[in-house]
Every structure is written in structure tokens, then in C-alpha cells.
Automatic annotation (TrEMBL), chain A:
One of its GO terms (molecular function) is cobalamin binding. PROSITE patterns: B12_BINDING. Gene3D superfamilies: Cobalamin-binding domain. Residues 6-134 form the B12-binding domain. This is Cobalamin-binding protein. InterPro entries: Cobalamin-bd (IPR006158), Cobalamin-bd_sf (IPR036724).
UniProtKB/TrEMBL annotation, chain B:
It comes from the Bacteria. This is Uncharacterized protein.
Amino acid sequence: MANCLERKKVLLVPLDPVHDIGLKMIRRGLDEAGHQTMLLPPDLPPEEIVSIISRESPDQVLVSRTLGYGVAELLARFVDLTDAAGLRDRTTLVVGGMAIRPELAAELGFDAGFGPGTSVDEVVAYIEGRPYKPDAAGIRKEKADLTARYGYEYRHPAIAKLLEGIVDGILAWAEGKTSPGIKRARLRDEAWDVETWRQGKLDGNFNDAYAALCDPVAEAFYRKGEVHPKTRRQSKEEIARLEDYLTSVEKGMTVRRLQHREGQPKVFIQYGTGCPFMDIAHIKVCEAWGADGVVHFDPSWGARTEGFIGDFLTHQEDGSVITPENLSWIKAALEASTLWQVRAHRGLNTPETVVLAGKLGADLTKINIAYGALAAGTDPARLTVDGVEAIRMAVKYNLPFDVVTNEELAGVPAHKAFAGMLIVAALARRLGGRPMLQPLFAFSPEVMVSGQMRDNYIDFNAAKIEALRAIIDAPIWPGAPIGFLTQTEDRVQSSMTTSLHAALAASLNVDAVSIASSDEAYSGGPIVAASRVDTLRAVAEGFRFFGEGRVEPTKKANQWATEIVEKIETVLKAVAAAPSFPEAMYTGLLGSKEEGAYPGRGGRGTVTEE
Amino acid sequence: MAQGVLSQVLDALDLETFLICSSEDEGKEMAIRLMKTLGFQDVDLVFIQFAGPGARVRARAYIYRPGQDYAWVRNADREGKG
């Protein structure tokens, strides 16, 4: 059925010894649109083609030719012949093929030229004389709910029983305990109204009460207006410029889809250049190249500071400072479909980070007591009480969160990291939360030593997913980033290994992945935007390559999955038998010093009775 | 002109090539010297691999590091950038 007012007669000419696939695809599109088409055989002499044009009188002639040595002259001669035959005024000549550019087509005397990447729809639109609008449905993205299809039922009764007992113990232990972090979170929750703050009308009493709960560095901001010594305030002029920049970018902003089929995982990138300006610039690049979500990466010193400061702050270190101003600015820059995660998985501001993230419109957060206490420097007792509060706040603000297991990178075996993750996930479920399991897809110290990845990077990663699914029906979001320690400073290798891990993740039907940039292994300077594009493009190709196909793990994956589940159960039995959950962490049950896990010292001695 | 275009680089400019040299150290030195000869100051070598006749290199010049004054922000609405 025709979808245009006027049917066109189109002659399709493969002026090429062999290649006519593109023209055949275009003919199908034109036929479906109701036009009359005639496809000539390949490689007819130009004179014969001109004779056919004269006889058939088509409205349009589409010539296809791969540009090579001497081809420009051939095409120009073809145009001259049509001109000499008096046909040029009554038919439109169009050329398409590899290396064809509109400018070159015009130079050769054609009316239009289409190069690589041209869609059939684009050519049909040209034939019909209407502007080409890329398929809106193809690039429309909806914000995904990564937890929607999970019921969190346990599939391993013995582990379920152990987890429930451990959760009982954690809640009983934390009952009646508090910390400066909890007090700040509750103050932020109760007395910090985001709209009042946006209007600059925040009650001074909040600042006084808040400052009293901060350490000297943060307190100095509220008492004396001093910012952290590593940071710089951005000027009003800089902020105005950024607003103009964003307005300009939004005018031409489009988003792409990385996934080739429904059900392939959502793709997150981490930002945290140190500068919110640069972060926003990188985020817009990543959104345009297909990222579905972005993760706020804060500086390491932020986790060791009691309290948040404010203002538009930049600095020249990894991680962007969490302030209400910085976060709200980044939020304002995001596309409506972009998932925004603000991490609260460690540090002395864990529960308050959740409150801020919730109030400022984040979609997700990140919480893991075991990781934060064993590999990120916070005292286990402090992070246990703060973690319970953080989960409660995540429930209140309707924020699902991933439970990351990056302690594997320190050397903690996967089964111990998973035991810690499952405890936090079980705690979250008890409190009404929506946790997501975040196993690493990594060439971790454990596998380096034990050799599980000697033959391939597939089996052990697949075993992790299989093990978790044997225990609980929960969303899985490998990270962070996938392929950790498999990337090198070579951008091709780095992008490729990221792509292969993403393809493996897709094959395993996980819900999301966090990816690196191709600068992942480079430590000499900040990640650059071009390197982010590299991996996003590589992941899209990985998804395209495998489509509905599958990566096939060997039998080892199944065997290792069984072993992981058994070892998790053993660890959980030991944790359940410990005097308390913090004590289990102090004594190394979820990762010992020999395994690279050191109970953190940040905030030690700050847990008090309410 | 080139300076105007450089101001529109979002963060860094990478130069990738193959240098004929006799060792990785020589390749490193040549790559850094090349970048400085081109007028870049904030330069580093992101990747180098030496084999056979020379080295595959990826050299980087940071035009803007985070927190600096980015001209592309100022030029956002300007016609004909560069």
C-alpha cells in the first residue's frame, strides 16, 4: 500500500561488477511503499543503461557503486552520457555506496548521494520528496524498572533460613544504636525541604543543627563558609555558561539504543571526573551514544568526612563531590529516560547519601555493608547501624539499590563476597527494599591465583550468575565495571573485552551491566569522552553480534556454581554462629586480612545508644 | 584556526600511529617529543606496544582537565565553531 501521494517509477542501477545488495534492499522498501521499481543486472555498460533510461523514462535513477580507483571518473562519465542523451532534465540521478558522500555526488553531477549507514527509509523519503525523520519509535527510550519482574523468593531453603537468622541478629544488634551519620540523615530527611532549599529560603536552624553533627572540615562550611581545601567554588559566570551550554546541547540531543533486542541488559556508565561541568558533558555524550544509566562516583575522601558541604564545587581528583547543588545540577542535565544512581555503599555519609539522592530525584542507589566495612575503610559496627538506616531510607524514598561486591578486587573470594551481598539483600527484603545483586565480572585475584579463568573468561562468571539464581530470584547487575582487570591500556583490546563481557551478560539474561571506558586501565589522567564512546560502540556491536544467540559455558560453570553455593552456605553458617554481624566482619568471616579484607577504621567508636 | 578547533575538543586529543623505532623506550621518547613538537604541553602516553620494526602508540594531550575553563561551554551557541 502506497504511503505517499504519488507513485514513482524508479530505475535501480548497480553500476558495479557484483554489489547490488543495497539496491535490492531499497527496491523492497520502495515496492512496499507502492512505487514501481525496475532493477537492472549488475555491471551493464553505461551506454546501455542510458538507453534503458531513455526507453523507460523513470522519475528517478538510483545508481549504486562502491567507490574505488577510477570510479569517480566512471560515475562522472555516466552523468555526462545522460546529459548528452537529453535525459538529465527529466530524471533525477542519485548515487549511493561505500565512500559516497553528498558533496562528492554533487561534484560528479548527481542530484543526491547516500553513503554508508543510509537506511532504506531515508532513501524512500528522498524518492517521495519528503524530509527524512528517523524512526521515532526506534530511539524512544523509557526509564526501566530493573526490579519489576522479581519476586525475591528463595530457591535454597537452607540458605534462606540462615539468612533470615542473620538478619534477625543484625536488626536486634542495631536496635537502639545510632551514629552521627544516622542523625544527619534523619535531620536531612525531616528538616531539609528541597523546594525551600532551591528557593534559597532554608531555615538557618538546619545549618546550625547540621554543623553540630559534622567533622571540622564540613563544619567550617556551615560556620565560616569555607569549602573543602581540595575543592573550588564555581563562579556565577561559569554556572550561567553551563546553563547556556546545556540549552544548546538539548536542542540537538538524540539518544540511541545499544541493545539489539528486547531483554538485553541496560548499560550504565560511571561518571566522576571531579568537575560537574565535565561530568555533564560526558553524560550527554554517553546518553547520545546509548548509555541507559549513569552512576555518580564520589571522591574517596568524601567517604571519610562526616557530613556534606554545599555549593557548586569542582576539584581535580577522581570522583565528583556530593553536594546538593552538584547533584541537582547533574539531575537537571539528564535525559528523561536515563537511570541515575547515586552511590551510598560505604563511608560515613551512607544513610544521608540515600536521603539526598531520594530528595533530588535519583532512581537508584548502592549499599553494601560488608564491602564498605571490609574494603572501603568504614568501621564494621558503624556501617552496620548506618547500613540498616540507609536501607530504611532507600525504602522510604523508593530507591532500589545494587549490592556491589567489589571486595573481590581486594582478593576476597567470590563466595565470601556473595555471602556478604546476600546478607545485605536479605536485610533489604526484610525492611521492604528492592536490592539488586551485583557480582563482579572480573579477572579477580581469586581467579588469578586459583586459575578459574585460565581457559576462558566465561565459565566462572557464568557460574556466579548460576549460583546466585540457585539461591534467590532477584535482579542481577554485573559490574562494576564488567571485565574488571581484563582491560589494558590499548583501547581496542579494552573495548573488545568490555564488549565480550557485555555479550556474556546479555547471554546470561542479566538485567543491567556497568561498563568501563576504554581508558579503564590508564591511570595517567582523567577518562576522556572519546574513550567512553569506544566502549559504548563496542558493547552495541557485542549485543548486535550475539542477538538472540548464546555464549555457551562449559561444564565447569555448572560445577563451580555448585561449589560457590556450598561455600556460601558454609560462610553463612559461620556468620550465623558469630556473636554479631560486625563481629563476623572483624574476625574475617566475610573476608580475612590474608584475603585482602581489612576491617575499616573510619567512624570507629562513633556508634552510640539512642 | 587549529587553536579555535582545539578549544572545541571536549577534553583531550589522542594521536595514534606506528613509530619506527628500536625499543619501547625509544618509542616513548619519540611519541612524547612528537606531541610537544606539535605544541601540546599536557601530554602523556596512554598506550605503547613495541614489536618488530617499531611501536604502536597512543599519545594523549589534555586540552582541558576537569575543573578548567572550557571554551566549548562559552562557545556553545556560537555559529561556525572554530
